[in-house]
Amino acid sequence: MTTAQHDHVGPQPYPEHYEPPHGPRWRLFFGPGLGRALWMTPLFFSLGMFLVVGLRWWWGWPPAFDWTVIVAIGGMVAAPVGFLTGIGAFDYWLHYISGRPTRPEDHSGHGATSWKDYFRVNTDHKVIGIQYLVTTFFFFTVGGFMAMLFRAELARPGLQFLDSQSFNGLVSVHATLMIFLFIIPAFAGIANFVVPLMLGAPDMAFPRLNALSYWLLPIAGVMFLASFVAPGGAFGAGWTGYAPLSVDGPVGNIFFNMGVQWAGASSVMTALNFLVTIITMRAPGMTFWRMPLLVWANFTTSLLVVIATPFIAGSQFFVFFDRVLHTSFFTPDGGGYVLGYQHIFWFYSHPAVYIMMLPGFGIVSEVISTMARKPIFGYRLMALSLIGILVLGFSVWAHHMFVAGMANWLRVPMMITTLLIAVPTGIKIFSWIATLWRGRIHLTTPMLFALGFVTMFTIGGLSGIYLGAVPIDIHASDTYFIVAHIHYVLFGGSVFTIFAGIYYWFPKMTGRMYDERLGKAHFWLTFVSFNATFFPMHYLGLRGMNRRVFDYPAAFGGLNFFITIASFVLGASVVVFFYNMIMSWARGPIAEGNPWRSHTLEWQVSSPPPIFNFDEIPQVVGGPYEYGVPGARHAVLAPAREVEEVPV
Amino acid sequence: MTSHAEAAAHHHGPPIANQSSRVDARVLGMLLFIASETMLFGSFFTVYFFVRVANPDAPSTWPPPPYHFPVFVAGVNTAILVTSSFTMHWALQSIKRGNRPAFLAGMTLTFLMGLAFLLTQLVEYLHVGFNTSSGAFASVFFGLTGLHGAHVFVGLTLLGMVLVRGFRGHFSPQHHHGVELPGIYWHFVDVMWIVVYSAVYLL
Question: Is the pTM here over 0.90, yes or no?
């Protein structure tokens, strides 16, 4: 563990004006960066391969060249470690642990002066935030294309141009990318940029750990995508990867098992970093009850991540061992317990839906309060309801298993706790509506997305209450009703809040303003096509159309064709978003420091923020949302210093 | 606001962050990491519970005959690991008081005992008489002891790094976080072993 401050006395730092002893070409291949990663990744793969082959040969286990094991150890453990070593994620620590001099923190890893700095290990939380967001939107696009591909297949009954295995692979990788490479890390990206600013902190608590946790993410994404080239195709057991199907299925499943480990490690590290930052680095006067709700949301989310994520790591390890080490955790022949997989998996994956939702609640609270020019209604209750969801979220996992053949007595308690979660969630919905009540509402793009979220998430929440009730769940289980529900919650819920957050903080992140007209066009296009795509699925599901099928009765043909067309419009709406973002980032009008006249701290500095956020740590004197309260202030900042006064 | 940005460009280094908690950031980070690790062990104990208790075909004796767990050897190993926690504590207290020889002796002893534990476990694996494909009880046995062994390995790496830096004279009564944090981790590995040993071998 290292922090920005380092206090060890032993190693002598390099001289003040450190000059690397080698030329630029040497540095390209041996200095930290993508050039060094280019040869270290295959080197580490070979090391892993020789380890596997050597040990198998030594023990006399035929065949020595077992490609499943070689790919698992060489490709999914050693090669990523080589990549991370190559780009220099471990450089500081390797120097530190061997007792050699560490490079002094000359802040060269801070800030970005050109686009190339985004392809380096950078310890600036603002750079990391943007790295996260760009990466996640890349995988969002890839996952979206997959969805359009299998929607095209579903336009008509019968097989068109996909075979069943590639259909299953597309559906599974679509879901996996959207969950592990888009929604969860996109929230981490927004929070990375915003939370230290909101707290009045110069950076995160562990900047190097922060950089490492970002670079784990593309590894996971590449691993999921690489499963398409595995013999037998991509993992096709769904993003839930139920055993024993995922144990006996094609070898692509181990790409899922191991990719989840990298994505999970990334989110645990980020969450740990957020928790330590929020607990130890708040500005003076920033008590817990003065923190903006986005900070509260990320505090609770991070607790969920730290506590729950190890369970999916465990579940995927067991599946991986069942295949590679021939254990029988979930193999009934050897005395394994098949249903155990679902219990362990959902013990993570139900809290995970709150990991994908709570940061969005935080974003929406910021946007609605600022744009309605009113203090958030029931601030403390809003924070406490987050804690309520956190606690209850751990007690509901088996509602995913009502038809799985688990013990009958478990059903009713799980139904009751599930329905109870509607209470803290309902508090939040009503608080947002009460905040809007008699507010001076500015219908900007982030506000439109926030309002879209409140309505769509309410629909998703209501269908969730249906599904939480055992009798309805038994009827609707494994149908398109579930598909509709999850997309109302995750697209109409999480993705809308991500869009709201991106538009809201776009001027802060880039220093430029997005095009409001294009933003509104994007919203309405998304809102209408989203409903056209997913609302008919409720009906299809209740009429009995199964989910995860590539073929269906001809009677459902018309509606499915309509859904496919709508899904293409939904895909096209994202083009508007990308056009707006790229053009505005390149040559949009220069944004002022505080275009929304918000009170929270990130808006009190310039856009984009100075390299260390604040000249001096601000003093917090009041709550974050005192809009329209005469004389209320959230924080007092030291006046900006004149250039002449600063010693050069 | 632009003068602000220009000022920052000339400003060397970040402002000192406010310390809003009495807990040290690094200690808190380590404790949260340990909380996460505990949950990882929790998932392995869950699968142990499923295989041994919840499963309708759970074996009536543990381990199912004809297999045996080397309870005595593992017991000796437990004693070694528990002792190493005390030497770790001794080393930390010594460096806090500025007693470098005692610190180095304590760290060396801790490292050697940890190594002895890991090697003993390796030998135990070779002579235990079954392998990972011998059934669910073996999966649980190798899963829990193997997960713990991996943690001992990580702990030993951290201790090794303390040793290297210790012999180079990098620690002092004022600066011993580099000893304290691996120490916390080592105590965690130790306590976890007592739970694993009780669950797998004794119960």
Answer: yes
